[in-house]
Design a protein that fits this description.
Blueprint (H helix, E strand, L loop, with lengths): L7 H10 L13 H8 L5 E4 L5 E4 L1 H9 L3 E4 L2 E4 L2 H17 L3 E5 L6 E9 L2 E6 L7 H10 L4 H11 L4 H8 L3 H15 L4 H9 L11
Helix pairs in contact: 1-4, 5-6, 6-8, 7-8
Length: 215
């Protein structure tokens, strides 16, 4: 059962250590910047020291709606597990009140995810959710078009990005292993990648673009 994150004890200690820090005022980021943040397929939330949300981009709303590791409860970001809640409270106090950057992990199993908490201004921190996959589908499609990959080659590239081995790709696509190896060679030739590792590095560096049809 989910338990609402209650960082009050950790936050009160941090406030006592830094009494000059003002309480965060609502953040007005403007409609243009808000729209731009919604086009980024990385969850980003602006929060105060008590995890009250000041802004959520579209991807963050989706991630919190899932509720597996984190959820939105009464306007606050809550952790599902008590241990995660305590760690998150400490990291949030460090970022929002002390100006320190923190990286933590929350959730278990398939729901496990990484969070970066970074200071924005006194009393406000940005909570950034780690990506659960190497590359977004729309970014990968754009990469494939830019390098004139065939549909079959694009599917092979997508499978490589998921971590599938050539043998797995061959079985899933119902083709011979030699065919997949030929397709990988063609992808490398078109993209200029020296190896599969180099190819995946190129894919991982693509901008995280969210799809136009978000739901």
């Amino acid at each position: 059962m989910n338990t609402l994150m209650n960082p009050s004890s950790a936050t009160l200690k941090a406030l006592a250590a830094t009494p000059e820090v003002p309480r965060a005022a609502p953040v007005a980021i403007g409609p243009l910047l808000a729209a731009a943040l919604d086009e980024v397929d990385v969850g980003l939330a602006l929060v105060d020291p008590e995890a009250r949300t000041l802004h959520l981009n579209h991807r963050a709303q989706q991630c919190l709606a899932d509720g597996a590791a984190l959820a939105l409860r009464d306007g606050r970001i809550a952790a599902s597990r008590a241990d995660d809640a305590a760690a998150m409270a400490r990291a949030l106090a460090d970022a929002a009140l002390r100006g320190l950057r923190r990286l933590i992990h929350v959730g278990q199993g398939d729901a496990r995810c990484s969070l970066a908490l970074v200071p924005v201004r006194p009393g406000v921190a940005a909570l950034m959710l780690g990506r659960s996959h190497l590359c977004e589908a729309l970014s990968l499609q754009g990469f494939a078009r830019a390098h004139a990959l065939s549909d079959a080659e694009a599917r092979v590239l997508s499978a490589l990005g998921r971590g599938d081995a050539p043998t797995q790709i061959a079985r899933a696509h119902g083709v011979a292993l030699s065919t997949v190896r030929t397709q990988i060679g063609a992808i490398r030739g078109k993209t200029g990648a020296a190896s599969i590792r180099d190819l995946l590095r190129m894919v991982a560096a693509l901008p995280p673009i969210v799809g136009a049809l978000r739901h």
